[in-house]
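Entry 14. Two folds queued back to back today. First construct below, sequence then structure tokens.
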Amino acid sequence: LTGDIERDQEIRLLREQPEALRADVLLAPHHGSKTSSSAAFLDAVHPRVAVFQAGHHNRYGHPADEVLRRYEERGIARFDSPHCGAWAWHSDSLGQARVSGLCVRDAARRYWHWRDPQRP
């Protein structure tokens, strides 16, 4: 859980605890801002999945396109709360994360989004 760390804090973690950074699922640092998710940090964590928490149409534009590209270049599956809503996932008894999570917004549509296929 990275919280609002930025590049400087990532560098410090890389310097002080590089072996402790490996994770299957990464809560993207600082909502995916331009000042986070450095290439070196992503390479050290080596996640299979990243989750970006940000407000829908937030004024900061999180997650930043250049940050999303860094994740994409590394083949990291990405989920973001502005599009996905909450992302639900589980880990097995060995602590291995299942990459296939569930976007709650897609799974639990609001009743006013439902349309009867029989009605025009």
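Second construct, same run, same settings:
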Amino acid sequence: MALNGVSQMWLFALYEFLRTWRQRAMQLLQLADQYAKTKPAKQKAFLSKTLADAKGKEKHIFSGSSFYSHHISRIADTDFVASIKAYYDKTDGWFGFIEELRMNLAKHEVPKKRGMVTEMPGYARMGLVTGTLYWQFIDAQGGLQKLDRREAANFFLDIQVPDYDDDRDELLE
């Protein structure tokens, strides 16, 4: 029971981290798009004003560090913007998947189906092969889905897991 509770909290934290990162990434992508559409003669002024606005939002930070203005200062760097776009796109499907599970766990509702109660909300099962906890949940289309903690962590940390079935097939050849 405690492991299930801690695992749910971990999943909620993962959701919030990705949601916040994706929100910030979208802001940067929109600023980069505005910068690119600005006439070259006015780009420097656009960047200066945008950067000054960002630094104004950071003025209350005294003991920590903020990378907000630093990231905004790089919106003219096409490689930087492309890397943000690539990771944003990469997280798109997984974020939606985690968001739907979060709705089932936290609100006991099926996502985008106001008031529709989910089946066994918060009930985690343990995988027999890996021992990791997993949840079955109803997605926005009404289909049954499964997500385990290890899959979510591996995706987030970009850990590539070998496919042992492929290795076995090679050995048998």
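Quick look at the second one. The two ends are 45 Å apart (CA to CA). The first strand starts at residue 125 and ends at 126.
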